[in-house]
Amino acid sequence: MQNVAKLTRRGFIKAAGIACGYAVLGVNLTREAAAAAMEFIGLRQASVYNADANIYKMRKSQENPTVMSLYAKDGFLSEGPCGHKSHHLLHTHYFDRAAKVQALKDKGVELKF
Prior knowledge:
mainly alpha, Ferredoxin hydrogenase small subunit, electron transfer activity, oxidoreductase, metal-binding, iron-sulfur
């Protein structure tokens, strides 16, 4: 027979914590504690968003005066954001190094990533 309710470890710990809360504190007090926690989370989220909106005046990199001066007509990257020089300097390239890593492992080198 297949188990209908499969719980992960995290789900089990959460369910056990809620059950213990109900057993020790009772249903109403546990609901009030959960509501207070959710209210705190909401206040914390609002304060983080508020701080982010008020502290960082430049929220877009393309509005940054330094970046704008780089791409200005007499700037270093005057050919524009998609120009050859900006592409060469600002974009990265992928190199597959899996074979070299495997060769080191075969030699017995222990790599720590």
